[in-house]
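Hi all, posting the design record for the shared folder.

TITLE: backbone redesign
STEP: 1 of 1
STRUCTURE INPUT:
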């Protein structure tokens, strides 16, 4: 019995070498075995490192291949979903892609297609960049492409900084000009007052008002701002705890976030576990007592084609709840 099993394993490796990458059902037919037994043999051969399995799947099943058949993996790109297939084709064409230059769907997709995309971290001047390389790309060519990219990017940054310096100088010159004009206007006011024989006491009051009015406003504004910041810090900590617990409890991986209104409204793009695997979702957090149909409609517009999960601290209005099953079908609302 043991010899028979060993023989089947050897034959299995030979079949994969001849026909791989292949699915378990193909091996089962070739060995005249049931699919369960064939899958068990393949799994053991992967554990023994005699075979390799893919991350791309067909009907929920991975493909099996031997080292040296990597070139054939690109034939499996047809099993990717439409968006990921486009991303894989782009990577194949460009050889390298910089992670931060891509939209969220491409970034998420590259992290899933481990058969076709290999991550490369590059650190320059204590700043780390993540690149993705086409899995068949030559390492020497990839290094040259990344080098050219970083060199070009550095030049653009330098030019941008120079433009910023020029703009800053122009802004300062404009401020000086405006300041001189303001002083000129004040002087004209005082001269007009002199011509009208305004009493010295009245002139002192006018000057005092002009000199002290702005500092008083600034002081009042500063007090209001400090009070607002104190309240904001408390709210921020509280919101962070609520959202943090929610993300941890539901095993949500945050890929990107955008603060619309501090402590009140935040947009996220995240990986969320579903019954059919991990999917990419647009999460909208809003701290509001009542979430109405306008809130949901705006969030759907922001989400675009990405499925929407609306996280609210308040309740849905009656109309918004009714529209969840019609106009906002597919939207998931969660009170946190």
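Okay, here is what came back for every position:
SEQUENCE:
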């Amino acid at each position: 019995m043991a010899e028979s099993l060993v023989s089947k394993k050897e034959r299995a490796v030979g079949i994969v070498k001849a026909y791989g990458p292949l699915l378990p059902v193909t091996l089962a037919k070739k060995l005249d075995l049931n699919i369960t037994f064939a899958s068990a043999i393949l799994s053991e051969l992967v554990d023994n490192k005699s075979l390799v399995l893919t991350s791309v799947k067909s009907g929920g099943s991975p493909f099996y291949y031997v080292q040296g058949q990597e070139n054939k993996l690109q034939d499996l790109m047809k099993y990717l979903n439409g968006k990921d297939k486009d991303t894989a084709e782009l990577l194949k064409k460009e050889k390298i892609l910089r992670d931060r230059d891509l939209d969220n769907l491409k970034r998420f997709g590259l992290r899933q297609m481990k058969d076709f995309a290999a991550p490369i971290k590059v650190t320059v001047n204590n700043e780390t960049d993540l690149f993705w390389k086409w899995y068949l790309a030559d390492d020497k060519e990839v290094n040259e492409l990344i080098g050219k990219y970083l060199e070009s990017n550095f030049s653009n940054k330098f030019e941008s900084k120079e433009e910023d310096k020029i703009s800053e100088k122009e802004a300062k010159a404009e401020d000086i000009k405006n300041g001189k004009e303001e002083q000129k206007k004040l002087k004209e006011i005082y001269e007009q007052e002199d011509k009208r024989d305004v009493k010295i006491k009245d002139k002192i009051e006018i000057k005092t008002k002009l000199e002290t009015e702005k500092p008083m406003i600034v002081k009042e504004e500063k007090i209001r701002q400090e009070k607002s910041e104190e309240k904001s810090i408390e709210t921020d900590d509280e919101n962070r705890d609520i959202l943090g617990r929610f993300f941890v409890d539901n095993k949500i991986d945050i890929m990107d976030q955008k603060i619309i209104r501090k402590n009140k409204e935040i947009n996220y793009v995240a990986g969320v576990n579903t019954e059919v695997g991990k999917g990419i979702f647009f999460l909208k957090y809003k701290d509001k007592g009542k979430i109405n149909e306008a809130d949901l409609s705006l969030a759907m517009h922001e989400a675009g084609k990405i499925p929407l999960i609306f996280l609210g601290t308040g309740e849905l209005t009656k109309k918004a709840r009714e529209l969840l099953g019609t106009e906002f079908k597919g939207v998931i609302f969660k009170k946190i």
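COMMENT: The radius of gyration is 32 Å.
Let me know if anyone wants the other runs.
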